[in-house]
Amino acid sequence: MKISDILNETVSFATEIQHLKLRANIVADLCEKLGTYPLIYRAFNARGPKSPIIKVINDSAAKYVAKGGASGKMTEIFKKLNIQNPVFCTMEIPTTIFEFHGRARIFIPPANYKVFWSPVVIDLGGNHCSGEYAEKYGMVQTGKGSYELTYDRRVGVELSHTYKEGLPKKYVENELIFDCEEYYLIDIGDFILRFAGKKAKDLIYYPERKIPGFDQTMPSIFEHLRQELFQKTFKNYQSLAWYIRKPMMYYLTQLELKVR
To answer: Is residue 131 part of a domain?
Structure first.
């Protein structure tokens, strides 16, 4: 197996205005299909030109493998549930625009997808479970953000029976595993600062931080997200579709007129 088969996501960037407008309409349609469902998020590091909406091709010859590879327990879960192109997501609103796994983005699934989640698995990669499974396999938080790693395939076999297919009926802290060959991601920071309108810019702030060795503070260089205000502004996928079709399309049209 080649390393390119493990790192199996190809990114398509929309840099031309017409291409971006076409992509925005496709994403708005997909958002409207999800309706009033809460937003889902995925941190992602895309190397390439700046683009508010990227398309990720997740199909690969290496089936049952997540981006970056998979541990024994992950592989067993993917096989038991027949998840061929896994994509890990969360319903937790990001606190910052830059996260551990990349920039914070809104996840837009395609029209056809499968999704699974487990009431006991909070973070499969981080070995974070709840209830009896946490004690049984030592999959509990052991320190400041560190977890005792468990790669035993038998863990995956047993945990696979706890998974349910379909979106949760309401918000859960547990991660979601989508199975789809492609999907879209909206860069939260870029979308808010450039395309969501003047009022939306208040969702981004730069907290003060202490300068080491001095009794002074300075604004952080990293953008942070006002989570409560963000949730009130982008209540669900339906409201996100409105921001794409109205403010974003308006700004793109203005940009188009300037370059003519």
So the answer is: no
Whether 138 is in a domain gets the answer: no
Contact 93, 231 (CB under 8 A): yes
Here the tokens at position 159 are: 């945990």
How many Å separate Cα 150 from the centre of its chain? 24
Range of the domain at 217: 3-122+153-259
pTM, 2 dp: 0.87
Long-range contacts, stretch 120-127, CB < 8 angstroms, 24+ apart? 120/159, 120/162, 120/174, 121/159, 121/162, 121/163, 121/174, 121/175, 122/173, 122/174, 122/175, 123/147, 123/175, 124/73, 124/74, 124/77, 124/88, 124/159, 124/175, 124/177, 125/71, 125/74, 125/88
Per-residue pLDDT reduced to its tens digit, 18-63 = 999 999 999 999 999 999 999 999 999 888 888 999 999 987 645 6
> How many domains are there within the chain?
1
Positive or negative, the Cα torsion across 201, 202, 204, 207? positive
Q: Answer whether residue 129 is part of any domain.
A: no
> Does some domain include residue 136?
no
